[in-house]
Structure formats: C-alpha cells, structure tokens
C-alpha cells in the first residue's frame, strides 16, 4: 500500500468516526485521537520526510487538504453539538427572562476599620488631631528617643522585625509617632492620635498576630496632670462602651512614661461572655497609658520644666474583639465572608 493510499484510508476512517460521534465528549475524544500530540493524522503528515523527493510535494499537499477538511468538519459538528446541548439544558431548566435579575451584594467597611474610625472620631470630638506616621522606622526613633538606649532590657518587651539595613526596622508600636509629632509642633501644645499598623515577631495565636493596628494618643501642654489623663480615658471609654461604664487604673511600666498605668473598664455582668472576657474579675483591660517621661519630652523638643503631657496606646482589633465577643484575632485577616457579613 502506498503512502497516498494509506492517507486516503485514514481520511475515510476519520470521517466515519466523526460521523458516528454523537456528543461533545465523543467529538473531543475523536479530536485527540486524530489531532492530538500523538494523533494519527499528525503521524501521517510526519511521513513526508521519509518519502522520495519527487513524491513529497504531492503527498504534503494532499495531507494538508485532508487535515483541513477533517478539522473543518469537526469544528462544524462541535458547534452544532454545543448549540444542541445548550437548547437541551434550557428546555430542562426553563429560564424566565421577565424575572428581575439578582442584585449583587454590596461590600462594606471591615469591622476593624470601622472601630478604628469610631475611635478616631471620638478623639476628634475631644479636640484631637489625627496623624499618620511611617511604618518603617529607624532604631533611634523606635527605641532610643523613647528612653530605651541600646541593650536596654525593656527592648525585650517588643519582638522586632529588623531589616537588612542596619538600624532600620518595622515599627513595633505606634509610640515613635510621638517623636514625629513633637518635633513638628514643639514647643507648642498638642493633642493628637496616631492610628496605624505595627509589626512584631511573635507566634500567631488566637490572641496575637505579627501585624496589627494600634492607636497612639498624645497630649502636651502646660499643667497637664494625671487627672487630665484619667478624665480623657473615662470620657473615651464611656463614648465607646456606654455611659454607665467605670474605669479602673492599675500601675504598670513603660519606659517612655512615668508613672505608667494600665486601664480597665467594668464589664456588664449580664453579658453571657462576661466571665470569659474578664476571667471572672469583672474588669477588662483596654489600654496602657502614663505621663510622658521627661527624657522623651526633651528628645521631642520640649522643656519638661515648662510643659508636661500624657500618652496612651490601645489596639482597635482587641477592642473590636471585646465589643463583639470575637475569640480569635486571626479572623480579621481571613477575608471570610461568613465572618465579615456579621457586621
């Protein structure tokens, strides 16, 4: 049998099998059999290199004609089968084009962002300006100017992400923003809050993340006292959590404030989550605060003999967890619509 005769037989057999294919799956199987990488038609075309030189042109032309004819027939039949399949599907599942379309669900502001904005708005109503500061900091601003010189043991309170550039790091808290604000406004009085993202090299658990938000607060001026700090915190807590809330102050330690305190609020006993949230004490910690250390004031450009001030810091995500009984901080980063849709 000559090569041309084999090609003619292949054409007849392929055409017959194409005619016998009755659905889209069978058609695609046919295409793979004859035109796949190891398909019969492609193998027949590769024979041209084995023929005598005087036969190659005629065989090649005939082979391309057969190939084009079969592919055209395949595409036509595949289009017909797709149309038939669509019509059968529409007949089995009737579509009423007069029905109104489905409305797309609108997105919303993330609950953590919403609480952050609520906190900013409360302090704005109290006369605070809202500032943003950089997230990539230098060691001096993140630690040294906040009364933590190199090798100070208090640095161990913050597990730090360092970069390859010596002295450059991801800020571990929003407190270095205090220095930026002081240097911008010194020696004038200032009231500011600084919301932003912080980073700590910690294990990710239900209560801690390597990336989280904080809100830093700062007040500097003549005759600022601990009573002003307590009044500000009380007003904030009652705006955010309810007018009946009471606060409790406990002594603490932060290297950039002296004295330093931690602030708790009383939690409603009727809340079914009260015991879990307060660990049975009835009180819930919401922030750390204190009077700005004289060294920090001096580093920011103020004279601690003339002015004084207080600072505080809180985590909006933690406050969100408290307000809405969320027990896993990782939920804020999952983008799970089932979680986000609750708010």
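Q: What amino acid sequence fits the structure above?
A:
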């Amino acid at each position: 049998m000559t090569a041309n005769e084999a090609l003619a037989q292949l054409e007849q057999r392929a055409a017959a099998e194409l005619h016998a294919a009755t659905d889209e799956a069978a058609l695609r199987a046919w295409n793979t059999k004859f035109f796949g990488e190891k398909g019969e038609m492609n193998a027949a075309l590769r024979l041209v290199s084995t023929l005598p030189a005087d036969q190659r042109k005629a065989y090649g032309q005939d082979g391309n004609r057969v190939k084009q004819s079969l592919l055209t027939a395949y595409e036509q039949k595949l289009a017909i089968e797709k149309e038939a399949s669509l019509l059968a599907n529409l007949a089995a599942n009737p579509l009423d084009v007069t029905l109104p379309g489905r409305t797309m669900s609108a997105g919303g502001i993330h609950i953590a962002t919403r609480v952050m904005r609520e906190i900013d708005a409360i302090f704005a109503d109290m006369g605070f300006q809202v500032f943003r500061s950089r997230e990539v900091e230098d060691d001096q601003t993140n630690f040294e100017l906040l009364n933590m010189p190199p090798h100070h043991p208090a640095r161990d309170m913050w597990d730090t992400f360092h970069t390859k550039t010596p002295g450059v790091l991801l800020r571990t808290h929003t407190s270095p923003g205090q220095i930026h604000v002081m240097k911008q406004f010194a020696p004038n009085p200032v009231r500011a809050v600084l919301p932003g993202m912080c980073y700590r090299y910690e294990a990710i658990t239900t209560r801690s993340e390597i990336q989280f938000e904080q809100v830093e607060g700062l007040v500097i001026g003549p005759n600022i006292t601990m009573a002003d700090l307590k009044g500000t915190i009380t007003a904030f807590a009652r705006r955010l959590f309810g007018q009946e809330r009471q606060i409790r102050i406990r002594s603490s330690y932060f290297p950039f404030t002296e004295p330093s305190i931690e602030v708790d609020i009383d939690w409603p006993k009727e809340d079914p989550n009260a015991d879990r949230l307060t660990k049975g004490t009835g009180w819930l910690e919401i922030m750390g605060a204190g009077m700005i250390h004289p060294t920090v004031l001096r580093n920011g450009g103020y004279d601690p003999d003339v002015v004084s001030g207080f600072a505080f810091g809180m985590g909006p995500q933690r406050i969100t967890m408290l307000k809405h009984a969320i027990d896993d901080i990782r939920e804020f980063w999952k983008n799970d619509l089932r979680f986000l849709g609750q708010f």
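Q: And what stands out in the fold?
A: The chain is about 45% helix and 20% strand.
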